[in-house]
Amino acid sequence: MRTYLVTGGAGFIGSNYIHYMFEKYGDTIRIINVDKLTYAGNLENLTDIEKLPNYTFVRADICDKEAIEKIFAENDIDRVVHFAAESHVDRSIRNPEVFVETNVLGTAVMLNAAKAAWELPDGSFKEDKKFLHVSTDEVYGSLPEDPEAFFYETTPIDPHSPYSASKASSDMLVKAYIDTYHFPANITNCSNNYGPYQFPEKLIPLIINNALSGKTLPVYGDGKNVRDWLYVMDHAKAIDMVQEEGVLGQRYNVGGHNEKQNIEIIQIILETLQELLPDSDPRKANVSENLISYVTDRKGHDRRYAIAPDKIKADLGWFPETMFKDGIRLTIQWYLEHGEWMQHVTSGDYQKYYAEMYQ
Ligand code: NAD
Ligand code: TYD
Known about the structure:
Blueprint: E1 2-7, H1 12-25, E2 29-35, E3 55-59, H2 65-74, E4 79-82, H3 89-94, H4 97-118, E5 130-136, H5 162-181, E6 185-190, E7 193-194, H6 203-213, E8 217-220, E9 226-228, E10 230-231, H7 232-245, E11 251-254, E12 259-261, H8 262-276, E13 292-295, H9 310-316, H10 324-337, H11 339-345, H12 349-357
Parallel strand pairs: 1-2, 1-4, 2-3, 4-5, 5-6, 6-11, 7-10, 8-13
Antiparallel strand pairs: 9-12
Helix pairs in contact: 1-7, 2-4, 4-5, 6-8, 8-10
The structure holds nicotinamide-adenine-dinucleotide (NAD) and thymidine-5'-diphosphate (TYD).
Thymidine-5'-diphosphate binds next to helix 6 and strand 8.
């Protein structure tokens, strides 16, 4: 039975990935989820998984070398899928240090522990051991508004925010392990994800939550920044395909060819909420374009991201299966049905963050 060590599995993409993997492989795999449970980690994302006999949760910080080495010592880990990170650009602008700690130092700890566990005396590695580093397209910087311009795997790294700089640094560390030790790893650089269990500091869940509660919808700058949105389960599938079928040592871009301006996203959310909410729901009256409020732009705001997923398509046959119009409906429907989840994650510290961020 193959054993996975998933880091950050209580977060948005990690928890969707764990659902995807158990749905696909059932009891033929074992998953150990190691997560520090920061504000972004939520065990409620995994309530249906917790009882599985082939699932284990370990609360630990990936920067805690001893804790991570202990997991490798006590388990014969075959796959590492490394999601754990500080992931929000706005937070990185306000407090960059923790991004360097978790994203750079934490990745170094993960790489070292896996290398120590998997390396043979002659410097080669045990068979069929693989490390996948989950990264972002933001490491490539920003694209001009030219519809022919895309991020390729060969695009130079040019991060702008402390978040993307920390992710680029961790990508470089993984690359250094591949180049120096022939460490068995891959890197994936994916575009913006959306779907269930996303914390409402990110654009899509924040707008859904605010619209339902009649709060203003903050649009940074002119609202015309472009992101390339991918349904989270398509990302989970890509990660698994790269790890099982990709060429070790290579980087794969993952994206949806689904570019949208932020203001378009907000309009689609408002229209979909209007459609999905029954007339009897009192929240329907809140949902209106009048809530849109243009606010001061994010510092260093990247203008446009757009992935060319040509390599993963040609080499592995991956493509984004979920059309945006379907994925966004599924996502909004999920948030409508999980009001309690939203209530839990927006109580306490979230209120403080929101008040400071959007003062
Ligand atoms: P998230 O913020 O929702 O989840 C991060 C998880 O990591 C949380 O469960 C948190 O508790 C955990 N974590 C944070 N610091 C930790 C530490 N020191 N030790 C152990 N666990 C820790 O993030 P996400 O959106 O799910 O992103 C997951 C990964 O995917 C990140 O590496 C991110 O850079 C990358 N990524 C995200 C997107 C996106 O659109 N969200 C796109 C491409 C790549
Ligand atoms: P976000 O979800 O934070 O993802 P990222 O910055 O990693 O791409 O933001 C997506 C886009 O939405 C980005 O251009 C910033 C913008 N945005 C707003 O206009 N208002 C908001 O309140 C937030 C959170 C984001």
